[in-house]
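Exercise (ungraded).
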Amino acid sequence: MDILYFAWVRERIGVPREALETKAKNVAELVEELKAREERYAVAFEDLSALRVAVDQELTDFDASLENATEVAFFPPMTGG
Amino acid sequence: MDILYFAWVRERIGVPREALETKAKNVAELVEELKAREERYAVAFEDLSALRVAVDQELTDFDASLENATEVAFFPPMTGG
Amino acid sequence: MRVIVQEAPFDLGAETSAFAIGETKMGAIVTFTGIVRDLAKTPLEAMEIEHYPGMTLKALEGIAAEAKKRFSLGNVLVIHRYGRLTPGEMIMMVATAAPHRKDAFEGAEFLMDYLKSRAPFWKREITAQGADWVASKDADEDALTRWEAKP
Amino acid sequence: MRVIVQEAPFDLGAETSAFAIGETKMGAIVTFTGIVRDLAKTPLEAMEIEHYPGMTLKALEGIAAEAKKRFSLGNVLVIHRYGRLTPGEMIMMVATAAPHRKDAFEGAEFLMDYLKSRAPFWKREITAQGADWVASKDADEDALTRWEAKP
């Protein structure tokens, strides 16, 4: 599974994307897995209310299923326009 | 005093403007004076709710004073934009 | 503030571009353009717009000044044509610049609502069947209550 | 419907003009343009816009399609830039064509409200003091409730 990071989430984690083998069933489980890996993940995912997530390039929630998902992206609230 | 007519008011009265000596104190009195003159005025001013009036190029009401006024215009509701 | 009343066509692209250039304190530009529509049952040949020359510019300037008073706006542009126009031709445009998008949108909507019912223009549609004055719409008059209700 | 995501500048005048031409069934065109504003306490050197290449176009197309579903619209145009922009440069524009002005305005406002908070762009302001990610505004999130309340 490809994990992508944007804006300050990318800066805190230090890479724009990485490939990961995971058994996480939903986004929240994936987040817990990442947080357990290293301090920089724990810092980036400290406050989930400040984060947004897209699964396979569709905005969704942290309880979204990862079944058949190939790409998950984490980022702060968007500031387009 | 110059009296101006626009759109279908102009068409019904038959002239775009005319000069008039009047002692009318307000617009309503002027309208009565005009209606008394000829049938075409009576027809044009039959339904005042379908008309608008400007005194000295400012939109106003039919009870507006004509003191010091030099130009009165009658026309249907505007359709700009 | 720039208010123009003219018979000649205007260049929407050039006007919009000139309006927006150099607005470094403004984050938002909104434009509205009105076009002669051919929606009559019988094909529309032309739209004739009559106006009140002595009053038109003054009325448009008054509406633009009121918009600047009510909203946080930078520059404001109003162009309105009169005379004979054919379907597809542009009748008029407004443009507003503002620090934030809400003021730019509301400023432009305010201008349009007042232009519709308070600027001395009268439209007549010409078809093969003859000429008909366009009736004012209750909806256009009602649109003004949105602004009258506000402080 | 035309949706463009690009790093290069766009020509607001040419785009607006091309959009409006030949819309004989549409009476109203609204455009919105966003400009890099220099309102920071320390002078703004540049605004950097990051985006999510795989998702951006899809997200913008989804927002534009939703606008066409909700309002009586003709053509819709969305252009959004990314990369490094300096103050006064145009960031993005939307344009809507509609038979009536209300739909044209509401369509453009809908597009803007969703672009602000639902399109994957992130802005960073660069000053002599350093770089700061622009925080999302509660007001932008709140703006969406206007559309969610509607059927």
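Further reading is listed at the end of the chapter. For now, observe: The beta strands of chain B are 2-5, 17-19, 52-55, 58-60, 71-75. The interface with chain D takes residues 81 of chain B (CB under 8 Å).
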